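During the reporting period the student researcher (J.K.) took over the structure-prediction task from the postdoctoral fellow and processed the backlog of single-chain submissions. One of the processed entries is reproduced below for the supervisory committee.
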Amino acid sequence: MLVPVMLLALACAADAGGARTVLDLGDGDRVVASTGSGEAVVLEVVRSPAMRARGMMFRDEVPRGTGMLFVLERADRHPFWMYQCRVALDIVWLDEHGTVVDVSPHTPPCPSLPCPNYAPQQPARLVIEVGAGEAARLGMTPGRRVLLVPERSREGGR
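J.K. obtained the following structure tokens:
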């Protein structure tokens, strides 16, 4: 019952107008992301350089419906790599309004150096990492807007 209510709330947020920016994410440690496809994913919010450097390293799995949201200081063509990641990931770059600017699907792990960098074609301010195949399942394609709502908002402010 919670998921349909959450998705309805996300749909209403999309219809409310106005462009949500990264500054509207609050300071919580989780957000709910949806493209309006009927599916949502809960993302850990990563803001510090130390947490960004660690990212998804050493994880044996990324459960369906979960991932990470990297909040970056400025829009740029931020490269990501897969050093010491143990599972393939989808890397999704978004602008400050949550519009997908690029996707690196099924990005393979890199257990040892050197590792390739993956960078978007356009500047991005946010980066989402989810398990391989999740971006397509969620409808995260270039030009599509991803709604980002602080997780506490769906719990009535708790």
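The committee noted the following: The first strand starts at residue 30 and ends at 34.
J.K. will present the remaining backlog at the next meeting.
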